[in-house]
Amino acid sequence: ASYADQTVTRGEGGETHQHAGGEVPVLTTQQGVPVADDQNSLRIGRRGPTALEDFHFREKIFHFDHERIPERVVHARGFGAHGFFEPYESLADITKADLFQRPGDKTPAFVRFSTVAGSKGSSDLARDVRGFAVKLYTQQGNWDLVGNNIPVFFIQDAIKFPDIIHAAKEEPDRGFPQAQTAHDNFWDFISLNPESMHMALWIMSDRTIPRSFRFMEGFGVHTFRLINAAGKSTFVKFHWKPKLGLQSVVWNEALKINGADPDFHRRDLWDAIQSGNFPEWELGLQLFDEVFAEQFAFDVLDATKIVPEEQVPVRRVGRLVLDRCVDNFFAETEQVAFCTQNIVPGIDFSNDPLLQGRNFSYLDTQLKRLGSPNFTYLPINAPKCPFHHFQQDGHMAFHNPKGRANYEPNSWGGAAGGPREAPDAGFTSYPSEEEGPKLRIRAETFADHYSQARQFYLSQAEIEQRHIAAAFTFELSKVETPAIRARMVAHLLNVDEVLAKAVAEGLRLKAMPAPAEPARPVDKSLKPSPALSIVGN
Ligand code: HEM
Question: What is the distance in A from the centroid of ligand 1 to the CA of 52?
Fold first, then answer.
């Protein structure tokens, strides 16, 4: 008999055996031993117990037993694809980063989109932040731009990250809710941390539930530095602008889609790429120098603030195209390891205390998640330029240094001595001048928590404002503790009175609370910014 071009026989128990032959390879064990029968374990007698000596059975079950690795501590649910980045113009005047030197030069890229709070098996259309992580395999090493689809963040200092994530994920006693903002712990944290207010407005807005990844913006969030060949530094905010424009779904649609197809976003990306409909984003830069940065009313090191596009226009400098799905979800999308500290010559960090903390966290968690310091050799993580170093051993060391040299300086000349330093071409940190007493303190320039939240709200079209009020009402109506609801309304009074009243009415609050006391007066002169509204885009 033949089934899908393979010879098929039936065993004595009626089970199906498909045979190797022609182009069909022989099934082997991990040791390469050819397997005669993969349907039956080795028994004593026809109906007897299974024999311990069945090495094929034991190897197969052993490997299966160890298939799972820990899911990411955040951003567990994600979907990735391959593509490339190409600059439109040379940016040599502002950065020496190799990938920005020659227009049209293609740099391979891998992008993983994700949700933050839900587990690996949660639904795609949760009300949550989306990750937009880009790995660029440049000729001078890997640059990871690990961003989100929202340009600001909940907290200003990485030391609060475990707290916000604990509060956002399922509550520890009951183990729910999953991937939902609607619960007491989450809103308790937000209401006690006014610095979250700008981000809270964003996640209650239509920006939060994209129609698909293809219609979503990305942001590097922090202020970074670009460094040119002369050593000059320019501050930069990174943006990804979708060529298809910005589109979202409303909550009602999200609920139905989640019910009908919790894989809606990943299926959309897969289908688009497989049918040759390659999604594209333009890389946008907001560039400003330190003197200009001083003029802002906020601190450019504060990740809860945007740099308004009206003040610093976004310059579009290249495009990112996703044109290839992964061959294997686990090997690529699951094992990819993005890390904010992966930067290349021509790019540098700012002192943003959130970014500085992230630079520790990613590598640390990935050692746990991927199990070996050698995860950098996995094909999805390895640079695509030549790389040579003396790191050795550890679990899964299959690329140890060759020969005698595993340290330097050494006396073994030429190639036998192994790789050496490159003082001119190698990465050097921007020599910013830093001094001051060692303090555990937050600068007062971080203290305005409402002005940009208010500006964001006022920038929304009327229908978007109504959606924000409805989202706050719905989410806070799930909060059982009255004091938390009232505290949130007290904050909203500093954002917009109409919004606060709509939410208070929706929640049937008995009395309107007094506005929360702002640490800095709210700047009510900020003009709405059209760039922040989806309707306007
Ligand atoms: C994962 C973005 C803040 C720790 C991720 C991912 C993204 C992301 C996109 C998913 C990467 C992937 O697809 O594999 C951001 C942004 C932040 C932020 C934009 C703020 C602006 C933080 C902070 C910390 C942190 C403050 C810790 C101090 C982590 C960890 C992972 C992660 C541990 C899991 C990484 C892994 O297991 O591979 N983040 N994050 N993040 N983030 Fe963040």
Answer: 45
The annotation status of 369 as a binding-site residue, yes or no, is yes
Please, what's the b/e burial string for 55-80 (b: 16 or more CB within 10 A of its CB; e: otherwise)? ebbeebeeeeeeeeeeebebbbbbbb
* Pocket of ligand 1 from Cβ distances under 6 Å: 72-75, 78, 112, 114, 131, 133, 146-148, 153, 158, 161, 221, 303, 336-338, 354, 357-358, 361-362, 365-366, 369
pLDDT band per the 50, 70, 90 thresholds, residue 5: low
| Residues in CB range of 93: below 8 A, 6 or more apart | 228
Give the Cα separation of 115 and 148 in Å (integer).
9
Mutate to test the pocket of ligand 1, among 150, 342, 362, 365 (most ligand atoms within 8 A of CB): 362
pTM, rounded to two decimals = 0.96
Examine the residue annotation and report whether 228 is marked as an active-site residue of this protein. Answer: no
* Catalytic site includes residue 148: yes
Global ipTM: 0.94
How far is the C-alpha of 498 from the C-alpha of 512, rounded, in Å?
Answer: 12
Tokens coding 260: 């009908």
pLDDT tens profile 317-345? 999 999 999 999 999 999 999 999 999 99
pLDDT of residue 460: 97
43 appears as a binding residue in the annotation: no
> From CA 134, how far away is CA 322, in angstroms rounded?
11
Go through 176-185 and write b for each residue having 16 or more CB atoms within 10 A of its CB, e for each that does not.
ebebbbebbb
Residue nearest to atom 19 of ligand 1 (CA): 147
Contact 338, 135 (CB under 8 A): yes
Average of pLDDT values for 252-269?
97
Is residue 318 a contact partner of residue 283, using CB atoms and an 8 Å limit?
yes
What are the residues whose beta carbons fall under 8 Å from the beta carbon of 34, sequence distance 6 or more? Answer: 26, 27, 28
Average pLDDT (278-287) is 98
